[in-house]
Specification:
heterodimer; A: about 200 residues; mainly alpha; 9 helices; B: mainly alpha; two-stranded antiparallel ribbon; 4 strands; globular
């Protein structure tokens, strides 16, 4: 009973918050609602027994992505209020598309329910999700895992290629040069006559 | 372990040397882009031939995530060679435009790594990772001229639409996973054989095909192509038009005859719709173009349509026809772009078709070579383009799709108009403007590809082994 109540609560909050993401006037509020959506989705995952995915969702999406969004929203000088003007006037057509999609999904879902049920993943008893991941991530999926690493590397190269500029006249910090300073190079002994001063 | 290494020698070669070149370039004190480019070309050639040097090992590795067969060996060879050619013809362009950076060569290597994963994909996960690696490198290459507004726009457009297509693809993949319970192609095929085509599987398959249609720019998913082709630096456009298209097409063929081999009637409709739309959008859209890169974009849309006609047969001969057609198309496109890159007047590159006017008088060699290519894409008999279309259309004919072949022929005739217009402008019109002397690599590449198109590949000692190689590759899918 409690599970059912919490499912409906979380699902309702997730959908309502997702709606508020597009409806909110203030972009910062939008991001806050987005975070709420992620949290509700994480709660749904926990209800399904996928606690590792839930934690991952909170850590990656709330911890990194949403905070990044906040930074971008606050740093960019975009007049979001003007941009969002009349945004909700698209609601009827958006709702229409959403309803069509929903009906299609229902149809597919109904066909699935009508057929026999299948277990997607055979769960071994006594193995936590995290252990199950660990058992396959670096063994069966090692090749794919490495390839995914290369995908991230390519994204990193891309970001650097497209944005890094070497500007002249900018003083850079060179840690090796700093560390290599000795007493001789960094200090000069000047013998000053009394009453003369330097220069 | 050792077996895995020998199976994945091509991918390992690419991954290892790409990372080596990246770190060498990043820590080098001075600009080493020229050296990196030549080294990368060497790596690509090694990647292309290493499968054959090792005696074409076959099998799967990483618990069936990737498969190596004659098909992937053939594709690796072609992808490596065309990427190497594209890298060679990018040299003079980037140097004169003062854009040359070593990252470009590294990105080409990573892109080819992505493509090689695509053509050996044996699970939906490997398929997605391969596509993503290839696409990310392509987005960056499209925007490589970062100070140009048009290049940045084309990169951004490509990125946004590419992200959308990845979304479609992933949605389809998740539906298929949900309804079959497995990511592996072999297992999916088993479930489909047992259960037949349930609505969920068909919905997933259609989404998957839509995502992939974006990558080969088949209509109605072609919107990005003309803008991205026009905005990107010309050598990058040349690269786009050749290897990535072939890789995505090969991946579609593997999907259709592998996991979906038992529901041919279902996917045949989708492929036929894509083929017919692409042929007509490509042929009619190109009629009004004045920019040669946009023209090539529409031409590539139309040619993807012809390749899909071959695939729609759903037979081994169809896959073979697609491989022959795409191989010849890839060679032709590389040659055409080697010609387009020679269109440089003293003030810089020109891209208008009218700039070609009077080319037969100012630069007869280029005019002859370009004319050969134009006649080849049209499909005029002694040239290889004819055989490409022949092998693409005959399987569809045999599979009882005669009406589709008739449509394809009508589209070819419409398409012939704008290729002929180009020839007429080159040989008939008057113009004072003269192109500057092109660098040797470009002229060499254009002439070599023109020779390949013209008589060389028809010689029996080349055409017979090549045909048997392609037949073997097509047979390994079934």
């Amino acid at each position: 009973m409690l599970t059912v109540i919490s499912f409906y609560l979380l699902a309702f909050v997730a959908v309502a918050a997702a709606f508020m993401v597009v409806a909110a006037r203030n972009p910062v509020h939008s991001v806050m609602y987005l975070i709420l959506t992620f949290f509700s989705a994480a709660g749904l995952f926990i209800l399904m027994g996928a606690e590792f995915l839930a934690l991952l969702l909170v850590m990656v999406y709330v911890g990194a992505v949403a905070v990044l969004f906040l930074f971008v929203v606050m740093m960019l000088d975009v007049d979001f209020v003007e941009m969002k003007q009349g945004f909700l006037s698209y609601l009827p057509i958006g709702a229409l598309v959403a309803i069509v999609l929903l009906l299609e999904m229902l149809m597919v879902g109904a066909a699935y329910v009508a057929g026999e049920t299948k277990t997607v993943v055979v769960r071994e008893t006594g193995v936590s999700n995290l252990e199950a991941f660990g058992q396959v991530l670096y063994t069966d999926y090692a090749g794919i895992f490495e390839a995914a690493g290369f995908v991230l590397l390519v994204a990193m190269i891309g970001a650097i290629v497209l944005t890094l500029r070497d500007r002249d006249g900018v003083r850079k910090q060179d840690a090796t040069a700093q560390m290599a300073r000795t007493k001789e190079t960094g200090m000069e002994m000047v013998d000053i006559e009394p009453g003369q001063g330097i220069g | 372990m050792l077996q895995t290494i020998s199976l994945f020698a091509p991918q390992l070669v690419l991954a290892f040397f790409a990372s080596q070149l990246l770190s060498t370039g990043a820590f080098a004190k001075k600009d080493i882009s020229v050296g990196v480019r030549y080294f990368a070309v060497g790596v690509l050639v090694l990647y292309a031939v290493i499968g054959f040097l090792l005696g074409q090992p076959t099998g799967t590795a990483f618990k069936g995530a990737l498969i190596v067969d004659s098909y992937s060996h053939y594709m690796n060879f072609f992808l490596g060679m065309s990427a190497a050619a594209a890298l060679m013809f990018s040299k003079s362009f980037f140097q004169t435009e003062k854009l040359d950076r070593f990252e470009f060569s590294v990105l080409v290597l990573y892109c080819t790594l992505g493509m090689s994963i695509m053509v050996s994909a044996n699970t939906l996960l490997a398929l997605y990772i391969g596509i993503e690696m290839q696409s990310l490198a392509l987005y960056v290459m499209a925007a490589f001229n970062r100070d140009s507004l048009r290049a940045s726009e084309s990169g951004l457009k490509y990125f946004v639409l590419g992200a959308l297509s990845s979304g479609l693809l992933l949605y389809g993949a998740s539906l298929i996973y949900g309804f079959t319970g497995s990511l592996e192609f072999a297992r999916i095929a088993q479930v489909i054989t047992a259960d037949g085509a349930t609505p969920g599987i068909i919905a997933g398959m259609v989404f998957l095909l839509c995502g992939l249609a974006f990558k080969i720019s088949a209509a109605p998913f072609h919107m990005w192509t003309p803008d991205v082709y026009e905005g990107s630096p010309t050598p990058v456009t040349g690269f786009f038009a050749a290897a990535p298209k072939f890789a995505a097409m090969a991946l579609i063929a593997r999907l259709l005859v592998g996991p979906f081999g038992d529901i041919t009637t279902q996917w045949q409709q989708v492929i036929i719709v894509l083929a017919v739309l692409s042929m007509f959008v490509g042929a009619i859209g190109a009629l009004t173009q004045t920019n040669i890169k946009r023209l090539m974009a529409y031409s590539s849309i139309a040619n993807m349509g012809y390749a899909l006609v071959a695939l729609s047969a759903g037979t081994q001969a169809g896959v073979k026809g697609m491989l022959i057609f795409m191989s010849i198309y890839t060679i032709t496109v590389i040659g055409i772009f080697a010609c387009i890159l020679q269109m440089r007047i003293r003030n810089g590159m020109v891209e208008q078709i009218s700039d070609l006017a009077g080319l037969s008088k100012t630069n007869r060699g280029l005019a002859i070579v370009l004319t050969i290519f134009m006649f080849s894409v049209m499909g005029i008999p002694p040239l290889l383009g004819f055989f490409g279309k022949f092998f693409a259309f005959v399987p569809a004919m045999e599979a009882g799709l005669a009406w589709l072949v008739v449509i394809a022929l009508v589209a070819s005739v419409i398409g012939a108009f704008y290729y002929l217009r180009l020839v007429k402008i080159m040989w008939g019109d008057e113009n004072e403007q003269e192109f500057v002397q092109a660098p040797k690599t470009l002229r060499g590449l254009a002439v070599i590809t023109a020779l390949l198109i013209f008589p060389l590949l028809l010689l029996p000692m080349i055409s017979i082994p090549a045909q048997s190689l392609i037949s073997q590759a097509a047979a390994s899918l079934f």
